[in-house]
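Could someone model pyridoxal-5'-phosphate with this protein?
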Amino acid sequence: MSYFLYHSIGTFAGKEAAVTRAVSDFTCHWCAEDDGQWPDAMTRRGAFIASWQRLIGAPAGSLTLAESVTGALYALMRGLPEQRLAGGVVLVAQDCFPSLHFLLAELARRIGFTLRTVAPPQGRAYVSDDDFLAAWGQDVRLALITWVTSTASHMADLDRLLDHGRRMGTLVGVDITQGVGIRPYAARADFTVGSSLKWLCGVPGAGVLQVMPDLLAECQPEFRGWFSQANPFSWDLDGFAFAPDARRFDNGTPNVLPAIASQPGLDHVLQTGVAVLGAHNRHLTGLLAQGAADLGLSLASPAEADRRGGSLMLHLPGNAAAVVDELRRRGIYTDARGSVLRLSPGSVTTADQCHDLLGALKQLAA
Ligand SMILES: Cc1ncc(COP(=O)(O)O)c(C=O)c1O
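Reply:
Sure, complex below.
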């Protein structure tokens, strides 16, 4: 088995046993006939939040869970004072994750902002920082940056973009889903959304929303409930009060299982270190890039390694789906979007497996 699917679902040696242990430990407490279930569940959820905060250097109390990245963006956008956005422009690139664009297009209609979508030039699979900046004027109230794209693994220069955003007076959010856990990220945008599913090796349902304290204090989330309060047991119908921290983005009874089952992946990344995981990945994507060049296959990803996240995307001349099927038959797991083959080697992937994949591509695609 050769695994190249970290852009979809991340994994690590011993994942099955570690996730089984985490879930079964939770089960023991949850099923005990005592009153310790919720304290135990909330402690585990708190550990997950603390791990994420540590991983991205976020201030304490600035991060909470969301069901998905789309859900996290929704919670934030519907928490902002409407006048922040109404009548202005929200900027996004065409190679953002489509689900976020689906959401923004509907919010544009409801809130009354213009959604400006930056397209890449003909023949390039990603929107460059220059393309994005050219569309980013003082009329942009909010910009959503995809740090690493899912279709080309283009990695945006966040320092440059955030600096520009500050000069334009724009609120800036970053989707870190495809980069977190494989490239270093330090929270410094107004808000960050992400998922635990990819390089963090978690399970579905463990998205996160991180909001800087100044912006957080302004937010009055529409989707609120008893757990949006500092004290969920404050049940005075006329006395609702938002929690002072990121808990204000919570709503009803917290969904704890995705956090619990994702904790082993987070522990793996924190214990191994993003620098170590990133170095292994850079070595393997370097081998794949060189091998692709030798085979005459062109990159959909940027050619410069420091402009890429953890994946390498290749244009295939023929039927990419058929190549993916044949690779699977040989025990090599990849996927394709249109004619683009997506390759994401992680901690369980070896250099020998990269050479085997290139050997197979020589027969099937070159
Ligand atoms: C860049 C990016 N953002 C977000 C997501 C997932 O969003 P959601 O959790 O809303 O499905 C993905 C999934 O592949 C992604 O690649």
